[in-house]
Design goal:
Blueprint lengths: L2 H4 L8 H25 L18 H7 L3
């Protein structure tokens, strides 16, 4: 993704909108990097899928628990 395209992310009417937009930008960026990396891997290489999850900050955990 060109750097100039990244500027439109991280914007929104609320904090949640901004975070969602940033999350989408990061997903797109990682997918772009993944595709670039896969181009240099031999076709007979063993591939595995690795899932990545979001880690919550202490602040987010407290907010979810009503603390």
């Amino acid at each position: 993704m060109p750097h100039s395209d990244f500027k439109r992310y991280g914007q929104g009417k609320t904090k949640e909108d901004c975070l969602k937009s940033l999350s989408q930008a990061i997903e797109l960026m990682l997918e772009d990097r993944r595709q670039d990396a896969l181009k240099s891997i031999p076709s007979d290489a063993h591939r595995e899928l690795v899932a990545v999850c979001k880690f919550l900050s202490i602040r987010e955990i407290g907010h979810q628990k009503g603390i």
